[in-house]
Amino acid sequence: MNDRDAAQADIGLIGLAVMGENLALNMESRGARVAVYNRTPEKTRVFMAGRAAGKRFIAAETLRELVQHLKRPRRVMLMVKAGAPVQETIETLAPLLEPDDILIDGGNSNFHDTERRVAEVERQGLRYVGTGVSGGEEGALRGPAIMPGGSEGAWRDLRPIFEAIAARAPDGTPCCRWIGPGGAGHFVKMVHNGIEYGDMQLIAEAYHLMRDVLQLSGERMQATFETWNRGDLQSYLIEITADIMAFREADGGLLVERILDAAGQKGTGRWTVAGALDLGVPLTLIGESVFARYLSALKEERVTAAGILGPPTDLPPLEDRESLVADLEQALLAAKIISYSQGFALMRSAAAAYGWALDYSDIALVWRSGCIIRSGFLDPIAAAFQNDPGLSNLILSPYFREKLHKAQAGWRRVAATAIQSGIPVPALSGALAYYDGLRCANLPANLLQAQRDYFGAHTYERVDRPRGTFFHTEWTAPSPEE
User: How do beta strands 127-134 and 145-150 pair?
Assistant: First the structure.
C-alpha cells in the first residue's frame, strides 16, 4: 500500500444526522477510515470538530471530493431520508464513480425502489446494495443488526466492514447476513419493522389491561414486566417497557401516564401491510397494529365519542387478579408467536413471488441482537427452520405448536375479559382469530363463494370434485328437483 492509499478512506458515508453520525463512529471504532459528507457543509464541520475530533475521519465538502478520498473499489453508504433524497443523491453521485464501485442505501427505503435502483445502477457498471439497519441510534453506534441485499458481487467487498460493525449474538457471531438479490434486504427490514409494530401494540394492550382492568400501580406493572423479561417473553421491548414503568418525574408522577395517547409512525408498518395485501398473505396482527395507531391519532374524536358511547355495565367482579396477570403473560407470548409467524409467512410468499432464495434461519439469527425485536425465542425460530427449511408456517413447528397449546386457555380468558370490560385488544384478539382460523378445517367461505356466484357469476369449486374444476349455478332458476 502506498502513502496515498494509506491516507484514503475505506468507506464514505453521506448524511450526518444522528444515525449517520453514529454509524460512522461505529465504523471508525472498528478500524475503518471513514470519509464523511453532509449536504450542509456546516454539519460536517461541527461533526469533525466535535465527536469526530482526533479520530480517523476525512471531511468532504462536495460529493466529488468524497469520491476522491476513497479507495477502489469505492464504497459509499447513504444515510439520508428515503424517497426523493436517496434518488437525487444517487443521480448526482453515480456519474462520479467508476465500474465496480458500490453504492449502499442504509435507510428505510421501500423495497420496490431498491429493486429498481439495483437494475439502474448495475446498468451503469456499478453495484448497489439496499441494507436494512436496525437498532436505532444506540444500535448504530454500538452494533446494529444489518440486512444487506442487492448486487451479490458486492458482498465480498462489504462483508469485512459490515460484520465488524454489527451487533454480536450471545454466541459471538455477527448479526449480519447477506439476504438476497434486488430489494430482499430492504424487504426483510420492512418485515422486521412490521413485527416491531405488532410487538409494541401487544405490549400496549397488556399495559391497558393492567392499568384499567387490573388497576395495577406503576410499581406493580414494572415488577411484572421485569419478571416477564426473565422468562419466555425475554426481549428488548419488554425490557425497555419495565424501564418506562419505573421512570418518574420530579413530583413522583409516572411520565408514561402524562404522554399523549396518539402514536406516530414513519410508514414501514403500512408498507408491510400493503406488501401482504399485494401477495395475498393474512398479516392480520400487524395490520391491526397499524390501524390501532391510526385510531390513536383520532384523539379529539375519541374524547368526544367517550362522552357519548357508554361503557359496558353490570360487569362481574374481578376475583383473582394474580391469575389474570399469569393469563396475560401467556396471551402476550402466544400473540407474539403469531406476530413472528405471520412475518415469516410474508417473507416466504415474497421469496416465491420475487425469486429470492431467503434463508429464514439466517434471518432469525440476524435478529438475535442489536435490533429492536431481539428476543429470547429467535434461537428456537432459527432452529425450527434449520430442522425444516420447507416449514410453511412457524406455528406448525413442534416447539411453537406446544407453546401455543399451553398458552391458549389463558389467551382466551384474557380476550374474553377484555371484551367484557370494553377494553380494545385488536392485536391480541386478532392473533387469536388467526390461530383459530388457521386450525379450522372448514371455514364459512363456502357461503361467500355462493354469494359471489349468485350476484356476479364468479363460479365456485365443489368438495366432491377435484380442485381446479369450477361451477356456476343459476340461483334464481327452479331447482332440479322441481
Answer: antiparallel
DSSP codes, 152-221: GGGHHHHHHHHHHHS-B-TTS-BSB---BSTTHHHHHHHHHHHHHHHHHHHHHHHHHHHHHTS---HHHH
On whether the CB atoms of residues 110 and 82 are closer than 8 A, the answer is: yes
- Number of continuous H segments (helices) and E segments (strands) in the chain: 20, 7
Four-point Cα dihedral 264, 195, 369, 401, nearest 10: 150
Residues in the chain: 482
Residue 152: name the closest of 129, 131, 175, 125 by CA: 129
87's grid cell: 434518488
Q: Which amino acid is at 212?
A: D
SS (H, E, C) 359-396: CHHHHHHHCCCCCCCCECCHHHHHHHHHHCCCCCCHHH
**Of the candidates 222, 277, 142, 207, the residue with the CA atom closest to the CA atom of residue 428:** 207
CA torsion, ordered 236, 238, 243, 249, to nearest 10 deg: 120
Lookup: cell for 128? 448497489
HSE at residue 83, side-chain half, CA atoms within 13 A, is 4
Reading the chain (482 residues) residue by residue, the pLDDT tens digits are 333 444 799 999 999 999 999 999 999 999 999 999 999 999 999 999 999 999 999 999 999 999 999 999 999 999 999 999 999 999 999 999 999 999 999 999 999 999 999 999 999 999 999 999 999 899 999 999 999 999 999 999 999 999 999 999 999 999 999 999 999 999 999 999 999 999 999 999 999 999 999 999 999 999 999 999 999 999 999 999 999 999 999 999 999 999 999 998 877 889 999 999 999 999 999 999 999 999 999 999 999 999 999 999 888 777 788 999 999 999 999 999 999 999 999 999 999 999 999 999 999 999 999 999 999 989 999 999 999 999 999 999 999 999 999 999 999 999 999 999 999 999 999 999 999 999 999 999 999 999 999 999 999 999 999 999 999 999 998 766 65
List active site positions.
189, 196
What are the start-end ranges of the H helices in 36-183?
41-49, 63-68, 84-93, 111-123, 136-142, 155-165
136: left (phi over 0), alpha (psi -120 to 50) or beta: left
- 3-state SS class at 455: helix
| CA gap 324, 209 in Å, rounded | 10
Query: How many angstroms separate the CA atoms of 176 and 297, rounded?
Result: 35
Q: What amino acid is encoded at 8 in this protein?
A: Q
Classify burial at 395, counting beta carbons within 10 Å of its beta carbon; exposed 0-12, middle 13-18, buried 19 or more. buried
